[in-house]
Amino acid sequence: MNIQETAFPPQEKRRRxxxxxxxxxxxxxxxxxxxxxxxxxxxxxxxxxxxxxxFLPNCSLDYGTDISFPCGPLCxxxxxxxxxxNVEMAARFRLIMHLLFGLSILYxxxxxxxxxxxxxxxxxxxxxxxxxLPYESHVMIMGALWAAMAARHRRAGRHALLFLSALAAxxxxxxxxxxxxxxxxxxxAVLARIMxxxxxxxxxxGLSLLWILPFVVVCSMCWRFFFGAWQPFEAWLLTTLExxxxxxxxxxxxxxxxxxIAGVLCVAAFITASMIxxxxxxxxxxxxxxxxxxxxxxxxxxxxxxxxxxxxxFTACAALAAVLILMSKHPRELxxxxxxxxxxxxxxxxxxxxxxxxxxxxxxxLLSGKQGLANLRAATRLPETRRTLAEQSKENxxxxxLPSTWLQLIRETGGMMDVLPGEIAYCPANGIPxxxxxxxxxxxxxxxxxxxRMARHFASAAAPPFLLLRWESLDERSLPFDVPRTWLVLVxxxxxxxxxxxxxxxxxxxxxxxxxxxxxxxxxxxxxxxEWVDVPSTEGMLLAAMQFRLTPEGHAMKTMLRIxxxxxxxxxxxxxxxxxxxxxxxxxxxxxxxxxPLSQFDAAHALTGALPRSAVRFRITGxxxxxxxxxxxxxxxxxxxxxxxxxxxAKA
Length: 652
What we know:
Blueprint: H1 2-7, H2 11-32, H3 45-55, H4 86-112, H5 115-130, H6 135-152, H7 154-172, H8 176-196, H9 201-226, H10 230-250, H11 257-279, H12 284-290, H13 292-303, H14 309-327, H15 331-354, H16 360-367, H17 370-380, H18 382-396, H19 404-413, E1 417-420, H20 426-429, H21 448-459, E2 466-470, H22 479-482, H23 484-493, E3 494-500, E4 505-510, E5 516-519, E6 523-527, E7 533-534, E8 541-546, H24 552-560, E9 566-572, E10 577-582, E11 591-592, H25 600-607, E12 615-621, E13 632-642, H26 646-651
Parallel strand pairs: 1-2
Antiparallel strand pairs: 2-4, 3-4, 5-13, 6-13, 7-12, 8-11, 8-13, 9-10, 9-12
Helix pairs in contact: 2-4, 2-5, 4-5, 4-6, 4-17, 5-14, 6-7, 6-8, 6-12, 6-14, 7-8, 7-9, 8-9, 8-12, 8-13, 11-12, 11-14, 11-15, 13-14, 14-15, 21-23
């Protein structure tokens, strides 16, 4: 007996040695990968919505009632700025989440799979962070890890279910799309646990309580704090759902086909590895199936808008493969999951090179621990962090400064301002109070309902006295064609008072009395893609309201990937042809087709009461036409805008 004990150490002794080796490795891993992401004030559309998610929870406006933003009131936890107590709350969130992340890795390596899978996982995850892993993706990967633990291990799975359920509930108020992904993995993990053993009533009830109770408790606390009533919460969720449904149409952006092929190969490799693991009767196959919702979410996020998001897909996809490595206990499982990780990395390398996603200086900072320790200091030395953010914001604000005469006029006349279509940073950079519209950024109001809600806001007494219009093209889109109803309301209710052509800025002041509008009889017609439609002569503006409907192939394409863009082309009397991207859903509100405002010059004319030059005909083209039914029903409505006579002004 003594000989056997000497030759074969007990299991507990092995675990102790494993723990001693894992403790310093996990501590080093946590230091190297500690997240940062504290945001100073910057210019740009993305930087502006990050400012919005930090500002909105600290203002008097209510989500659902006043705000229809698709990001929740806790989204600042992902992109914290120094507004209110956001930096402090985000720092605590990062510390707690990272500690739980490290404890989960430690437990899996110590009690479940072994030392080698844990070490390989940490090495793979460090490699992933070299190419950039946003904190939002990091949170999703932590959720995927807990879902894998819940499906893989009974004892650890109980705690993992609690963590995952609480995180899914919290993410409902951070980003509902992220919460939906986590809840999908949670449901699959619970189903996997139930199917592993004999199905007993008390087992099912116990597992249900493990995930339902924390979800309900966290949801109730957040709902009570941020909403307090069911109606605004329901309105916010429905608006978010509407935004998500049409995101693949309105925000779609095509990119190199080679990147899409590489992405499909990564997904196919993940599915193939899952099938091989099932053929091997491996428990890791269940883990892989549980991770499918996160894989699909990452693919959609990366390729709906095929720009820099593509890099985030490949890094997060490799991180999911690293989770499978951590779950692998036997040599064959470990070999297969390592091959999957290396395959995903090799496929992604050409994409990283093309996108310039790798920076040697940043990589050295990460591997040396310099970056992680700096992020850790930022989370623990908050006064210093806030000073640094203030200095960076002041430096960045220099390029956003408005002319002094504009600032004097704004402060003397009203003081509040909004910025369209979305460069919100002009307000805080110039010290002007910001009065946001319901959709916060006009480029996000990409349905007819959201456009109408924004139009009602600018026609109401809640509208700001000043608007700063920055004429810019986002994917060949512009304000009059993104939100046509809102544009008509702006023409009637605001007038141009100043402009700066160099930066594409137009300063608008709210009219004391809106312009009067006269609607003339409408005409019902149909149009066919690619065919020219003659523009009938009319004295004022001619609005074309088009009803686009997706084909069955279009619905499938929208669900799985994206719908390519649609364009409207205008031909003028001199033969010149100009085109503009349109959003199929919002065109139901009627776009201007006889005197289209296609440039900053045209917009300035419209806002001063003049009319842009006339187009003689138009047509609908673009790669997205194949996914819509035709002919398209169209309603042509002449609309005349004119200044009221003095007697009518007095009555008004």
